[in-house]
């Protein structure tokens, strides 16, 4: 299988995965430069994959939000024409994210301006790699909360097409405390998305919203997504841990599942998380870095979505997390 790796918008390369399981190997293709100038503005990028045209789509900031396709052939990459997503008059753009909406066959972009307002745009890519995005299709997600950098995530339900955005209120504009978590679900009609009311992930305070890799969101089952994040020491629920929630989506309605820890409580919490999902098996793999004094190790765990709403009768080689049916002492069998 083919993967694409990007550290900064200017440089990108392919990764070829051969074999399966523990014997799989990864080989890197030739590095490709996507820009030749010193890009201007907040240096951040995000990618998604167009399953209709079979190429990746990149969003990045170079003074304004820009996008282009990345076609893969073997270990070779061919970059499409650059398109400007937004022409708003603003001093700074930040937090560019994108998601492929398989149900509607469109790419959805989101980004914020210097006033911390969050905007979206969408486009239907062409098979030749061009993306006819128009700033006239730009719309507003929200102008209330402060969408702190590196804490905004977006994904689309593959079965019914809802677009979900989860973000932190970094400046407490909602009056519920710093770094509270808010989400919204939107439905598409043409090039317009109708967003539901912002819904709070109650009793949870996120870790420093400027921490890179602090959250992730992905579909895990039709109508459901898994959301992972790290909590602060001040969080009323599960402080200084990595937690997940299974989110149920229906139209513009969004419901959070019970926040559940997938880590121990560390001295300074959890950072640098990544999430991989096997949708066919409703299975997720989470990797994180613990912030335990003297450690700072990478750790991983697998989760099965089918066990999130009830007890797990048996632990297997593919399911390391369960809820015991009875209370037992530490280190005793369940």
Model description:
The protein is mainly β. 0% of the residues lie in helices and 48% in strands. The chain contains no helices and 26 strands. The protein has strands at residues 2-8, 11-18, 25-28, 32-33, 45-50, 55-62, 64-73, 76-79, 83-84, 94-101, 106-112, 118-123, 139-142, 153-156, 163-169, 180-189, 192-195, 199-205, 215-221, 224-230, 242-250, 253-255, 260-261, 270-278, 283-290, 298-304. Strand 24 and strand 25 (283-290) form a beta hairpin. It is globular and about 60 Å long.
Short structural summary:
This protein has 334 residues and is mainly β. 0% of the residues lie in helices and 48% in strands. The protein is built from no helices and 26 strands.
Features:
334 residues; mainly beta; 5-stranded antiparallel β-sheet; 48% strand; globular
Which class best fits the helix and strand makeup?
A: mainly beta
Overall mean confidence score, pLDDT: 82
Oligomer: single chain
Number of DSSP helices?
0
Q: What form results from the Cα inertia axes?
A: globular
The major β-sheet equals: 5 strands, antiparallel
- In total, the number of strands is 26
Secondary-structure topology with pairs:
Elements: E1 2-8, E2 11-18, E3 25-28, E4 32-33, E5 45-50, E6 55-62, E7 64-73, E8 76-79, E9 83-84, E10 94-101, E11 106-112, E12 118-123, E13 139-142, E14 153-156, E15 163-169, E16 180-189, E17 192-195, E18 199-205, E19 215-221, E20 224-230, E21 242-250, E22 253-255, E23 260-261, E24 270-278, E25 283-290, E26 298-304
Antiparallel strand pairs: 1-2, 2-3, 2-4, 5-6, 6-7, 7-8, 7-9, 10-11, 11-12, 12-13, 14-15, 15-16, 16-17, 16-18, 19-20, 20-21, 21-22, 21-23, 24-25, 25-26
